[in-house]
Amino acid sequence: MASRPHITENTRKNLIDAFWKLYLIKPMEQISIKEITDLAGYNRGTFYLYFKDIYDALDSIERDTYDVMEAEIEKNVMLLRSRDVEPEVSDIAAAAIEIFKACDYKPLILINDNSQSDFEIRLKEMINRHLFSSLEKHMNVSGNTKEYMMYFFISGVMGVLKKWYNEGMVISVEEHLTEVCNVLFGKESFREKTVQKNTENFERESEI
Question: Residues 69-90: pLDDT tens digits?
Fold first, then answer.
């Protein structure tokens, strides 16, 4: 009898959800397939229909999280670009919070505290790819330094959010993120910078 797609997908999701619940409370090496299948309500054989091992299940979560985060970044970038005025630094900070919230903060949990994983590297490269062209004109640095500063900015935002998440999200993090943004972009608003730049361009053209 052919499997029904919605049942197959539900089974996969149930296994993933069970694995994630265990991943949140114990080290990866202490999670067993039996624990996953018992929690999800299946036998061990069902697990192997979907995953090679628990590391394959983790890879699946990382891929799904990456895709969701990329879609959220694209949506927020388009939203900021659609405005009639330049966004403020606080707008960038607020967007960052919403992006991670939409991913159930999974990227922050999947980032290793002690070493930089392949997932974290790919995540930062993806964020840089989507944001660099939009933000580079606002940076307080020039030339090749912009690319390095962008990675510094991304690491800073993720670091602040991870610390905030690990400490129970009991404080307002937007103010802290805004300060991280100010390091890269300065306290002067994007709108003020844009007006100043346009004025300078106009003055140069008038002198010609």
Answer: 999 999 988 887 787 766 677 7
Complete domains list, the chain, with CATH: 1-51 (1.10.10.60), 61-207 (1.10.357)
pLDDT, tens digit, 9 for 90 and up, residues 55-72: 999 999 999 999 999 999
pTM for this model (two decimals):
0.78
Q: Which of 199, 183, 181 is nearest to 87 (CA)?
A: 181
